[in-house]
Amino acid sequence: EAGVTQFPSHSVIEKGQTVTLRCDPISGHDNLYWYRRVMGKEIKFLLHFVKESKQDESGMPNNRFLAERTGGTYSTLKVQPAELEDSGVYFCASSQLGPANYGYTFGSGTRLTVV
Amino acid sequence: RKEVEQDPGPFNVPEGATVAFNCTYSNSASQSFFWYRQDCRKEPKLLMSVYSSGNEDGRFTAQLNRASQYISLLIRDSKLSDSATYLCVVNKDNDMRFGAGTRLTVKP
Question: Do A106 and B96 touch (CB under 8 A)?
């Protein structure tokens, strides 16, 4: 079974530019989550999709962040325009039933550096 | 107060040592609990779930105390390959909250 796939693995952009991160969940997983870890801080929740619907987007930091999951398969997270404080590692995770009993599987992350 | 608190360490122990990590959480309605392991520049990987009765997986033992809102992880007979950051994770209603992690280095 293929795992959660994220790309790019690294991205370096200038402040004010736009970056789009992509996540391909494990096939058949309805639940898809985006998390972010900034330097020295804990991993923080951004949002949760169930299929193509946003179940919870309470963790999205501001309106510069836009997540989509058209068709309920892969998801994109766009940052526009990027700011220096957006630098960090963006993780995607997916699960079949929700993490209540089994946790979930993370992708290897996208390391975003805004300069 | 943070929702999930962990001692950041680092814990530096010799091979073969026993080491314990602690974690406290603030939401008494939390429903399920996990320990994840994260290697440097890698994604977090599930190490084990934590059950109320306590559970063991080889050299790893996890304990949960709901009354004190406290979770622990015990590693016996530490191996060099155990060196990593250990993340305490607490779930309520499919909302997972992470601790900042405890860094462990096992030395020869």
Answer: no
Contact A104, A55 (CB under 8 A): no
Question: Over the range B4-20, which residues count as b (16 or more CB within 10 Å of their CB) and which as e?
Answer: bbbeeeebebeeeeebe
pLDDT tens digits for range A6-22? 999 999 999 999 999 99
CA A87/CA A13 separation, integer angstroms? 10
For the stretch A18-42, pLDDT in tens is 999 999 999 989 999 999 999 878 8
DSSP assignments along B34-101, one per residue: EEEEE-TTS-EEEEEEE-TT-EEETTEEEEEETTTTEEEEEE-S--GGG-EEEEEEEEETTEEEE---
Cα–Cα distance for residue pair A51/B46, rounded to 1 Å: 23
* Residue among B43, B91, B99 minimizing CB distance to A99: B91
**Per-residue tokens: A81:** 């325009």
The verdict on a CB contact (< 8 Å) between B95 and A43 is: no
Nearest alpha carbon to residue A77 among A68, A88, A64, A89: A68
